[in-house]
């Protein structure tokens, strides 16, 4: 792949991104390059390049050195401390911010289970009903300011 191919994002890349989110909503995980290519009736290389460009623009986050989507905010492709049930599906969120972003992205109510960072054992359950969070007085703490999140997105 030529470095120049990654410089600009193309209109078709946004079509790939839209498919990624539709696929996640339906299948609870991001598509592979092959699945996205088949769904859009385009080549594997076309989608792989789109994934790379979207990754560079932080529109998705790929596993380092791979063509596998790890994050499509607010969704996580791997298990985390944040689990969201919505529309009859279950999704992993990347962080506390994203656990609230999933019901917002899907425009639906949701049940959320989160493990407390200090113990990883104590659970917190929240409900999002009609765009309002219902909990028990929990407070979300963000250890880094937003401008530092992409310094190490997996840690954040």
List how many beta strands DSSP finds: 8
Overall residue-averaged pLDDT value: 88
The domain tally reads 2
Portion of residues within helices: 25-40%
What is the CATH architecture annotation of the largest domain? 2-Layer Sandwich
Q: Largest beta sheet: what is the strand line-up?
A: 1-2-3-5-4-6-7-8
| Estimated structural class | alpha+beta
Q: Gap between N and C termini, in Å? A: 29 Å
Which residue ranges are poorly predicted, with pLDDT under 50 across at least 5 consecutive positions? Answer: none
Beta fraction: 15-25%
Backbone shape: globular
Largest sheet: 8 strands, antiparallel
What's the Cα radius of gyration?
17 Å
Q: Output the CATH class name of the largest domain.
A: Alpha Beta
- Determine the CATH topology of the largest domain: Beta-Lactamase
- The assembly state of the depicted protein chains is single chain
Short description:
This protein is 31% helix and 22% strand. It is α+β, with helices and mostly antiparallel strands and 156 residues long.
Structure description:
By secondary structure, the protein is an alpha+beta fold. It has two domains: 3-70, Winged helix-like DNA-binding domain superfamily/Winged helix DNA-binding domain (Arc Repressor Mutant, subunit A), CATH 1.10.10; 76-151, Beta-Lactamase, CATH 3.30.450. Helices cover 31% and strands 22% of the residues. It has four helices and eight strands. The protein has helices at residues 11-27, 33-40, 44-56, 96-106, and strands at 61-62, 69-72, 75-76, 82-86, 89-93, 110-115, 123-129, 132-134. The protein has an eight-stranded antiparallel β-sheet with strand order 1-2-3-5-4-6-7-8, covered by helices on one side. It starts with 10 loop residues before the first helix and ends in a 22-residue tail after the last strand. The mean pLDDT is 88.
